[in-house]
Amino acid sequence: MSFDVIQMSEFNTWLQAARADGGFHKAKIKVTPDPERVQLKKIKPPDCGKTAGLDAEINERLRNGEKPIDLNPLFEALPSTPKVDRYEGKRVVDNSDERTFITYFVGEAPKGSYEWASDLQRRDAAIHSFCYLDTDFLYEAAGRYATLADDEAFMHRAIDDTSFVSDTLNFFTGGNYDRSDAAKMKDEITTIVEELAQQIKNGEAPDLNKLQNKITIGGVDVSLTELMEYQKVGRELMDSFQYGHLSAPLSGASVAEHAKMGLAKSIAELYGSDKGELGKRFSEGITRIYEKAVARQEKNASSDFWQDGYWSSEAVNIQVDSAKLFGHMKTDSKESMTRDLSEKLNQLQSRIRAYCYSFGNQLWYAPNGSAVNLNNTMNTIQDYFQSWMKKIG
Question: 0.85 cut: is pTM over it?
């Protein structure tokens, strides 16, 4: 990632050039004031009259029986977090200037990027940016820390990991974490960066697979490579929540997409079932996204637009119910889930046939006609399931 330093008067030119270049640009820049525009601001002494008036107002309120606000709970100490003294016996290197850089984005973020996922999440889409985080910040920080001698330490922590820490903890805990959890993870990431920096000093390329140190999530230690595997699986599963457009009359393709939503949630449960506490938390994280996807489709299906007769309302209900049907499967083993899949496919086929036969003998609504194509719909669902059974071993 580039580090540009430009003056305030140059910023608009820089921005226009980035836009004219097209595409998506992510850059760390520092905008400095133009020397000729820097002026000293005169600071006036406080207006004592106003301060006195405020005190008089507070005293008047107290005399009238208002209770003062107890601020003490806000200053209670957080649970203690072990700290590593990285400065003891070392010469401190002033890196204050690095703190003034900001990350700036120009253009529309490409699909699949962290910025794209974060934007969708802010708009309450069924997605979580944790699964789209990258580890570039680790290599960038390791490169900076590798410039330090063994007897040196940075004055300020030079690791851009705020999003990584908050998104990771948020996904695995559902937001149930505090500042001490974040501080602990940041300390652990600092140790990891120092380990990567040592690899560089030893003449090696920084390699996450060689790391000895881990990070802690919800009391569980996990390596970065294990965490990245959770990201990869979660990203692929979460992709099934981005589709599922409702259609009426019934579309077999739409039914299959909704069934994949439910299967993604159940597959996450199976995947995490043999991975201990963190695997359980992973499946819970995917479940929260699944529930958001289903709630969105339920809301869409309840619109008056879809309630104009059986042909429309039942069609969208079958699609939404497909997501629910396959989202509640027996996931204690592959064998039980495979048997349950067959049962649920039979239930879905029966409901689709009932829908199609309600239209009489019209070819367009035949179960195996061009619109519903029941056989192809069932094959699509089974193929998705089987592909995941191979992926998760």
Answer: no
